[in-house]
Design goal:
The chain is built from no helices and eight strands. By secondary structure, it is mostly beta strands. The strands form two sheets. Strands 1-8-3-6 form a four-stranded antiparallel β-sheet, with no helix packed on it. A four-stranded antiparallel β-sheet has the order 2-7-4-5, with no helix packed on it.
Amino acid sequence: MVTPFLDATKIGFLRLPKGYKAGLHPAPAKQFVMVLTGRMEVESGDGEQKQFLPGSVLLVTDTQGSGHRTSVLGNEDVFLV
């Protein structure tokens, strides 16, 4: 099974250190985020919390308003694409 291909214009890598906690912030753009290592929790503006492990893919769309919170869980850095 293959999904339709989407055009991509940018790609970047981000490391979040263990213990990292970001307050509410909007996403800089609508984007896919892929978790390569570590474990993180994202809390949406309405208070819903979800954990993401390696292999998780998120579509982040909250570019307006208060945004979301991000926290690294456990003793390993989180490495994202």
